[in-house]
Amino acid sequence: PPRVTLRQRLTGLSVSSVVLTLSVMVTFFYITVEMNQIANTLMYVRIGVMALMAIVVGIFSPVLVIKTLRDKINIVVEHLDMIGDGDLLSAAREVPVRDEISEIIVDVDGMKDRLRSARDQLMDLNINLEKKVAERTEELEAAMNELEALNENLTRINLEMEENEINRKRDLSLAASLQASFLLKKQPQYTRYDIATLYKPWTEVSGDFFDFYEDDGDLRGVGLFDVSGHGVSSGLLTLLAKSIITRNFNTHRD
């Protein structure tokens, strides 16, 4: 609570102004009456009654002023209380006379409208944000489901590729063993020729091969062949070609 209330301050100012005015008037009256020697008891009584009435008016006038101010201030306070409680649709009571306090009420009402607009915008943003978050969450869930399905397919494809690779290596190993069995295990020895060979396939199975054709221990021919391509198909073709060429050599030896 304030140390000096508004009523006390206004009462003090009002009484002081009345007493000061009365003091000047009484002094002037006393000097005038005494100098002219026209004073009497009734006159002093009348002056005293007038001074008392002036003092009473000076005391009770602030009460009326305070009541008027308090009523207007209460309108402002009530309006602010309603705004503080979240009621941004309420309207302040009408003030009959336009003055500074009524201007405060107008400013508070404008503040209330701005607060209501800001609150509506925040609520709209909140609703839209929740909606956007929900939509984004659904999109992310759908993307996650697609990724999981893709991951499962990739895992399945990877397993199939690993299985195919195992089968391919096994087939290549078998084909390489079969192809190696048809090649010379050691270097042939001839009287007139020194033979040396180096055979290094690029992959497990080669599309290249060589062969020596002899008759009665004497070298009759050398074959060096290149089949197009790599892998099992080329390797099988080398075996077929080697067999055909060897058979034709033996058949048409002369």
Question: How many strand elements?
Answer: 2
Low-confidence parts, pLDDT < 50 over ≥5 residues?
A: none
Q: What integer value in Å does the Rg equal?
A: 61 Å
In oligomeric terms, what are we looking at? single chain
Major sheet description: 2 strands, antiparallel
Main β-sheet, spatial strand arrangement: 1-2
Count every helix, treating DSSP H or I runs of 4 or more residues as helices: 4
Average pLDDT taken over every residue: 79
Q: Give the DSSP E fraction (strand runs of 2 or more residues).
A: 5-15%
The gross shape turns out to be: rod-shaped
| Cα end-to-end separation | 138 Å
Order of helices and strands: HHHEEH
Residue share in helices? over 70%
Helix/strand/pairing category: mainly alpha
The gist of it:
This protein is mainly alpha-helical and 254 residues long. It has 4 helices and 2 strands, in the order αααββα. The chain is rod-shaped and about 185 Å long.
Describe the fold and architecture.
The structure is a single chain. The chain is mostly helical. It is built from four helices and two strands. It has a two-stranded antiparallel ribbon with strand order 1-2. α1 (6-36) runs antiparallel to α2 (41-84), α2 packs parallel to α3 (100-182) and α3 packs parallel to α4 (232-251). The longest helix has 83 residues, at 100-182. The chain is rod-shaped and about 185 Å long. The N and C termini lie far apart (138 Å). The mean pLDDT is 79.
